[in-house]
Design brief:
Elements: E1 4-6, E2 17-18, E3 21-22, E4 24-29, H1 33-44, E5 49-55, H2 58-68, E6 72-76, H3 84-92, E7 97-102, H4 109-117, E8 122-125, H5 130-143, E9 146-147, H6 184-194, H7 199-206, H8 210-223, H9 229-239, H10 255-261
Parallel strand pairs: 4-5, 4-6, 6-7, 7-8, 8-9
Antiparallel strand pairs: 1-5, 2-3
Helix pairs in contact: 1-10, 2-3, 2-6, 6-8, 6-9, 7-8
């Protein structure tokens, strides 16, 4: 499964019984393998939680949620700077609890407000420890809302500051940042187009017919006012519909954060 790493040792359906009773199925969307390994270890050692797997990209995250049906998804804010993925995940499964682990670059009033509006239920610092993260998972699942106390000051209503256009600026297109003109499936198709896949390859990954993929591509070009596939990808990146992987996606610099959520030896 492209971009998805499921828990291949689990038995039964997602969210099934765990040693401590019925466990909450937990999955992650994060580009850092060692971070996901730390989270997996934490979940495995926490009674009442069950690890389902992780995804490293947007389209893989949507597939994971469709196929494994987690109760809780833990999402790296760097992969969702405009909250498009959160909105699509929430719309696809209203019962899904979305927990965003926020990086310092996204630690603003505007981002928290956008995340909550997109359907995120809990927001915690990415550098949080294991005890606080498991508390956030349980609180978010039971109360449908949890904001880490260290972020409370950012939940105040941000002041609106009108942005005046500069002389000579072109009018903003319909795909300005903050808007998502594409459907859930179109978004997945565009992600794979950006990875360089042809229609046949996209159809195989998404379990669709080639004709259905072709229809989605035509719709994407129309909605983005794009001349061709390359132009559509360019527009999507410029407008924030698509995002590049975090700079540290293949860097060991994230290791301390991963270890900070790993359980302590008993």
């Amino acid at each position: 499964m492209r971009g998805i790493e499921p828990n291949r040792t689990q038995a039964g359906r997602p969210g099934g019984l765990s040693p401590g009773g019925r466990g909450l199925g937990v999955a992650a969307v994060d580009p850092i393998p060692i971070f996901c390994e730390g989270l997996s270890s934490l979940v495995h050692r926490t009674p009442g939680l069950q690890w389902l797997g992780h995804a490293t990209s947007h389209h893989a995250a949507l597939q994971l949620c469709e196929q494994l049906k987690p109760d809780v998804i833990v999402l790296d804010s760097a992969l969702d700077p405009n909250c498009h993925l959160s909105r699509l995940l929430s719309a696809g499964d209203p019962a899904l609890v979305i927990i965003t682990m926020i990086r310092d670059t996204n630690r603003t009033q505007q981002y928290l407000a956008a995340a909550i509006a997109a359907g995120v239920h809990a927001i915690v610092p990415r550098a949080t420890d294991g005890r606080h993260l498991t508390e956030a998972i349980r609180r978010a699942h039971s109360d449908r809302r949890y904001i880490d106390p260290t972020l409370a000051a950012l939940t105040a209503r941000p002041k609106r500051q009108p942005v005046l256009p500069k002389p000579g600026d072109a009018p903003k297109p319909a795909t300005a940042r903050g808007l998502m003109p594409l459907s859930r499936r179109e978004y997945q198709v565009l992600q794979l187009v950006a990875e360089g896949l042809e229609n046949s390859g996209i159809a195989k990954i998404l379990f669709l017919s080639v004709e259905t993929v072709r229809t989605h591509v035509k719709s994407i070009l129309r909605k983005l006012s794009a001349r061709d596939r390359t132009h559509a990808v360019t527009i999507a990146f410029r407008s924030g519909i698509l995002v590049t992987s975090p700079d540290d996606a293949h860097s060991p610099a994230e290791t301390p954060s991963a270890s900070s959520i790993a359980p302590s030896p008993r």
